[in-house]
Input
Amino acid sequence: MPEILITLLTIGVVVAAIPGVCNYLILLERKLSAWMQDRIGPNRVGPMGLFQPLADGIKLLLKEDVVPPHVDKVLYVLAPALSVFTAMMAFAVVPFGPVDDSVPGFLRFIIAPNINIGLIFIFAITSLGVYGIVLGGWASNNKYSALGAMRASAQVVSYEIPLGMSVLGLALMSGTLNLEELMHQQTQGGIMSWNIWFQPLAAIMFFTASLAEANRLPFDLAECEQELIGGWHTEYSALKWALFFLGEYTHMITISFLTSILFLGGWNLPFIAEATSNYPGVWLVKLLVLSGKAFSFICLMIMLRWTIPRFRFDQLMELAWKVMIPLSLANLVMVMFCMHFGFNRWWLFVGSLGLFAAWGVISANLREAELAARPGYVKPKKKAPAVAHGHGHAAGHH
Amino acid sequence: MMDWLQAHPMTVVGLVLWAVGVLWLMPGKQAGSTRPKIPGLLLTAAGLFAFCLSCGKPQTQLADEVMFWVFAVSALLCGVLMITARNPVYAALWFALATLATCGLFLLQSAPFLAAATIIVYAGAVIVTFLFVIMLAQQSGAAGYDQKSGQSVMATISAFILLGAVAMTLQQEKLEIGVPVVVAKAKETNAAVAPSPPNMSAMMQASGSGSPAGLPTAPADAPEEKPAVPGNLLSSADPDHAVGDLKGLGRSLFSDYLFAVELAGTLLLVASIGAIALAPRREQGAL
Output
């Protein structure tokens, strides 16, 4: 089949599948949160509430499309479209299944194969994703929306730096930015060559920073129901609102696939899907393995949302600028050192743990020093029960 | 200078028309005085059209050609719309679009890394910061000083003289650099011009009327231009111009231009230290 037909087919399948998948992810999120909070969750529509997403979709489609009179109409309509567009564009270079000879010719599990700058392309496109939020917030002409938009822009610009720097070490180690190549290197070597062994710290930082990029809790200060009503999407309803969420969930899917591909060896799984395994239908197993890894990351994100409370804004900024950026720089220097002097890669594992521990000690000391510098600070006595300023969080009102 | 002006009437006419159109579109000295936009838009479009005609056309395949014109014209148009927009948010957005269109041009020149980096830095960070500042500074609509432009005549004239100078340089470049490249390719010698970046001269053919007739073209028996590598634009770095390739770029930056890179880095470091030093401290009442 000619290349262009395959590409069109892949695009069609992906564009058709992603909204459906996102719909069911929302159901999953509601069910998981219900399970975590000892509730039942949606169970009215269909068996076990399985048709709830369809009902929601129909409701969002048929709902009256309200455009408030005080908004900037062009940007108000443009913002949700931009949100979905950038999220979908980023997915174009992510392989969502095996990309090798085992796949039958008419199938291809990536929209745009062989992109040398794959990772940078994703960062470039996702960095445009903030326009949807910023413009939506500004066009709504509403103080809560504007506050949400401003928080979003500061947050996304800050977290782009650790996001990019955390995978620099990986790129240096593997010598490529091509996602297929990165996956190939890990799948050929088996589980002991998964990048998470050599870059555990980078994996954590990458995942955290991408949560912040996707505006997921605990980083959803742009939305922040308790303070800002809905933040940037306060004025949105019906399908435009749904588009924002389609963008967010597409972003989640992209992040999950990326984390699985970059750090967890892609479709590689011991005994089941190895580089040497060669039984009929192996491509389907590989596809399922990779999707399963991505799915577990999505579940992790959802469970994080219902576990960790939201950051305060200054904590958010401190995490990016005082913790993650220096740490990712140190990680990069460590990789350079190891590469240059030709040390065994496993030293990176030890080094990452050491860095993590060292940074924990340093930040605890810094935090104590910062608290001590505040006026009216009473040093907590040792072995005494919690005193007024014991927690530091409560003392943070300026 | 005068020779050039006489030799390229189309460029000059285009530039003048374009300048008048932009001048018309710009807000006047008094806040709120708005002229009808239609004549300005017409003039700008006519000038842009004439200017583009005078640039000659890129000598590539049809798809590339179409994409070149789409990106080039939208970059120029977005630039005009950026400086004439009355609302600063829209101006920032047109700036972002102009950046994206320029990145499209980079892609056409087989410089995918440059394109992606420009998107990250400009569209992704710088313009978002602009938007951030605009939103912080203007809670209640556009301020009066955004409705008028102080030195519109001087600004337009100087900007278009600059643009004319760039156009002139490019047209001359075509004569001076373009010829050796063509000759070198024809003779298949590995001349000193090998690392020439994929510049405009490589893209543009000499415009028919303007160029001297003596411009040598590649003889018929010369090897054909290497056909473009099939595949997508984001990955097919032209092997003749390894500069756009990630490895080539990195090697070039950290060997040939090491001093400049370090200097620029130091400059940025000094600027950020200065910003931190200037910002009010917490004890002085900020946050």
The CA atoms of residues 166 and 202 of chain A lie 5 Å apart. Residues 3-36 of chain A form the longest helix (34 residues). Chain A has two domains: 66-341, 344-398.
